[in-house]
Amino acid sequence: MSTRTDVQLMEAARTGDDKALDEVLARHEKQVYRFGLRMCGSEEDAKEVLQETLFTAFRGIHAFRGDAELSTWLYQVARTHCFRLRRKRVGVPETFQPLDAPAATRVAAEDAAPDMVSHARQMGEVLQAAILALPEAHREVLILRDVEGLSAEEAAKVVGIEVRALKSRLHRARLQLREHLSTLMGEGARGQAPACPELAQELSEFAAQEVDQATCVRLEDHLSRCPRCTEACDALKRTVSLCRRIPGDEVPAPVRAAVRQALSRALSA
């Protein structure tokens, strides 16, 4: 790996340095591709998001002020391209299955699958369908926080909202995702009692290990006395854990090759 900074690499790539271009891709292609895939739902759209995001970044690198990580800026650029794609697709049927479609079959509990590799792939598909069923504003914060692992401050900067608003939106996204997953995994019939309303958002943050020590102690004391909140918290923990283990980190080789070729051609023009 080069010791050059991201900005130095991008400027070098603009002058025809193929090694610099390869290193920029190695450093950032996964995060941008993953974000595009989770937001848009198809490899073709994710490829377009990756290509357009990096091309925009190369072309506008001098506008990068350096007051945030380059990765945060790339998420902002990718987010813009995702929204543009969505506007282009207005009136076009979605490519993912709705949650009540026959093809979106229910999945057995995780410990019941004999073939773990196949089950992991199936769980990834179910999770992706559930994420795509979220409203766009909820989907993006959940992807940034629970899939990509950005801090609340970083995610809020990408989305352009206050941290408090982001936490509230993320809480609603986690609850919705939990409900979608329960339906897809055949757990809906059991029903899930809601958590105590005054603690609902804090429990969401507690489940994701995002609270300070004092809040943690207070909530643990409450959970020891409240089965309803314990059940809700355990379900949220499973949801967050699934998001953090979602498969699909690698950019497919054909996609990477096509994006690299397009970028190389555009940068040399």
From TrEMBL:
Q: Which organism is it from?
A: Corallococcus exercitus
The family this protein is said to belong to: Belongs to the sigma-70 factor family. ECF subfamily.
Can you name this protein?
Answer: Sigma-70 family RNA polymerase sigma factor
Q: Where is the RNA polymerase sigma factor 70 region 4 type domain?
A: 126-177
Keyword hit for Transcription: yes
Q: What UniProt keywords apply to this chain's record, in alphabetical order?
A: Sigma factor, Transcription, Transcription regulation
Q: Name one Pfam family in it.
A: Sigma70_r2
Q: What GO terms in the biological process aspect are recorded for it?
A: DNA-templated transcription initiation
Upper taxonomic lineage: Bacteria, Pseudomonadati, Myxococcota, Myxococcia, Myxococcales
The residue ranges of the RNA polymerase sigma-70 region domain are 26-89
- The chain positions of domain Putative zinc-finger read 196-229
- SUPFAM superfamilies in the record, alphabetically? Sigma2 domain of RNA polymerase sigma factors (SSF88946), Sigma3 and sigma4 domains of RNA polymerase sigma factors (SSF88659)
Q: Which GO terms describe its molecular function?
A: DNA binding; sigma factor activity
Query: What highest taxon heads this organism's lineage?
Result: Bacteria
